[in-house]
Amino acid sequence: MLSQVSVRDETSDSGYDRDLFNHWIDANGDGCNTRCEVLRLERRATLPGLSNGGWLSLYDGKVTENPSEFDIDHVVALGEAWRSGASQWDGARRQAFANDLDDPLALIAVSASSNRSKSDSDPSGWQPPNKDYWCEYVTAWMAIKLKWDLAVDPIEFTALQSIVESC
């Protein structure tokens, strides 16, 4: 995948507004928005220490039975997507990206603290605290960038290459 990504400088954040990505919609009309759907898909029936199951944050290993403690992370953050090419998209494409339930790699339930520490960073500025998840993380990152035809900047490419070589 690394050889297939498009490498170019990012654009600025000029014009970026998270609200330009209409997210957490109820795409199938079942009363459960995108956040709800991800939580439903990722709930585990059994987890150590949680007799009734719950959620596991792959980023940092935290577990909870309270879904309000977790955020749904856009693995490629909306701001990063904007700088990587989404600034040229129309609203429908940005909405599709922000609510991509077709790709299980695109949106994941993670601890709120790990999601917020990541913010809009790419792998050159942030990797999950759980180093055992790094290879899966950069694989998901590259797959999403390729699927949505988003570029990686040269520093991001170097970080991806370094992590891939260690996998």
Would you kindly provide a written description of the structure presented here, covering whatever features stand out?
The protein has 167 residues and is mainly alpha-helical. It has one domain (2-10, 19-166). The protein has helices at residues 34-42, 78-84, 91-98, 112-118, 134-147, 154-166; strands spanning 55-56, 63-64, 70-74, 107-111. The strands form two sheets. A two-stranded antiparallel ribbon has the order 1-2. It has a two-stranded antiparallel sheet with strand order 3-4. A hairpin with a 6-residue loop joins strand 1 and strand 2. Helix 5 (134-147) packs across helix 6. The radius of gyration is 16 Å and the shape is globular. The mean pLDDT is 97.
Number of domains: 1
* Low-pLDDT residue intervals, each spanning 5 or more residues: none
Work out the strand percent.
Answer: 5-15%
- Taking Cα atoms only, what radius of gyration do you get, to the nearest Å? 16 Å
Number of strands: 4
Mean pLDDT: 97
- Give the spatial strand order of the biggest sheet: 1-2
What topology emerges from the helices and strands here?
Layout: H1 34-42, E1 55-56, E2 63-64, E3 70-74, H2 78-84, H3 91-98, E4 107-111, H4 112-118, H5 134-147, H6 154-166
Antiparallel strand pairs: 1-2, 3-4
